């Protein structure tokens, strides 16, 4: 990766971190599940440069978030978010040239959502001190309702970020087509 591309990846990661401050709940009964548009800039990086620069931007965003913002989920939530982001970026990058982009967005979002479900099964008891089933009962939705809430939230989150990133990239792609950034001259 060229030094210019590395710098752009770092800047995009820092901008994505700033977008984490724009957050709101999608489901009122599960206010701890908060949408933010930060992954949209990672989608731009996948479209512009591919997996490694997008991964670097994601890691910069999440490192800054962990050090500065933390959010309601703390380090456990950040670990879960980073893992889901890694799955999302990896699958989206893999499918970028092999499928229609909206199928890639959908499959990547579904995979990241399933990873988040598995991680919630594993980490929710550590974070809340109650079992997954008890957490569903505390929210008034039961176990199956909590499963649907986690999957639904994450599909909405990743698909919305995909579409926002797609629109953003279509508006600014000329900037990224600069031969210096694409690896032409150094």
Rounded radius of gyration (Å) = 17 Å
Tell me what the CATH architecture is. Answer: Orthogonal Bundle
Specify the CATH class: Mainly Alpha
Structural class: mainly alpha
Name the shape in a single word. elongated
- What fraction of the residues are assigned to beta strands by DSSP? under 5%
Q: Give average pLDDT, whole number.
A: 91
Helix content: over 70%
Largest sheet, order of strands side by side? Answer: 1-2
Number of strands: 2
Relevant terms:
mainly alpha; two-stranded antiparallel ribbon; 186 residues; Arp2/3 complex 21 kDa subunit ARPC3
Task: Walk me through the structure.
This protein has a single domain (3-22, 36-181), classed as Orthogonal Bundle (Arp2/3 complex 21 kDa subunit ARPC3). It has eight helices and two strands; from the N terminus they run H-E-E-H-H-H-H-H-H-H. It has helices spanning 3-19, 39-49, 51-69, 74-95, 101-128, 132-139, 142-176, 179-182; strands at residues 24-25, 34-35. It has a two-stranded antiparallel sheet with strand order 1-2. It starts with a helix and ends with a helix. With 186 residues, the chain is an all-alpha fold. The chain is elongated and about 55 Å long.
